[in-house]
Amino acid sequence: MDPEVKPDPKPDADPDATPAPRAAVRRKSVLREYLEAILIAVLLALLIRTFVVQAFKIPSGSMIPSLQVGDHILVNKFIYRFRDPGRGDVIVFKYPVDESRDFIKRVIAVGGEDLYIKGQEVYINCQPPETGCRPLEEPWAYYDERPVASETFGPVHVPPDAYFVMGDNRNNSQDSRFWGFVRREKVKGKAFIIYWSWDGETGSPLWEKVRWSRLGRLIP
Predict the structure, then answer these.
(1) Rounded CA gap, 28 and 197, in Å?
(2) Where are the domains of the chain?
(3) Which pTM does this prediction carry?
(4) How far, rounded to the nearest angstrom, does the alpha carbon of residue 37 sit from its chain's CA centroid?
(5) How far, in Å, CA of 33 to CA of 74, rounded?
(6) Which CATH number describes the domain made up of 48-218?
(7) CB 187 within 8 A of CB 103
């Protein structure tokens, strides 16, 4: 009978060899995983901010009552890849006078339309006293007590791929009445929700500065 075949014995361990630092290797592996996760999160955040949604803070009262100073909003940057801004949309765009600044206003007239304003009434594609000429319904518009009954603007023709925009707070808004139209390529997105609102001007306790009733409110 053949002798039993056995595997070669393992060579004797080198007494001078240094044991593998297993704990250090594990720490490096965990640290690497954390760094990779952070990097992925940052890249995703940048992609979302650039192409999908971006947060903005409202610094002025030009959109009162729809938006208050201290409202924090989200802007959909993806929607206008599929359609153009329409009348009534609240849009964020590059300020035509200084494109390093972002403005927020409401679209009142779109390319190809004629606009005329008399007092507190806005007319699209007609001018009173034309028969059947009715003012635009604007439930969002706000006027303070200053008299505007005799003020007129226009008529103006909105060029193609452009928009005439106004703030909801009509007597306290720098808008297309002062610096002209907003070009289509300057529109950044559509404001759609208030995710946070903070009244920093009151002397109330911190928890009372939060406008709880505005959180999660959709922007009309």
Answers:
(1) 42
(2) 48-218
(3) 0.77
(4) 26
(5) 31
(6) 2.10.109.10
(7) no
Spatial CA neighbour of 160 closest among 141, 182, 138, 134:
182
77-135: pLDDT as tens digits: 999 999 999 999 999 999 999 999 999 999 999 999 999 999 899 999 998 888 889 99
| Nearest CA among 102, 80, 87, 89 for reference residue 158 | 87
Distance CA 80, CA 61 (A): 26
Q: Cα dihedral sign for 49, 55, 60, 63?
A: positive
Catalytic residues: 62, 105
DSSP states of 145-191 as a string? Answer: SS--TT-EEEEEEPPTTEEEEE-SBGGG--SHHHH--EEGGGEEEEE
Q: Which two tokens stand for residue 195?
A: 């995710």
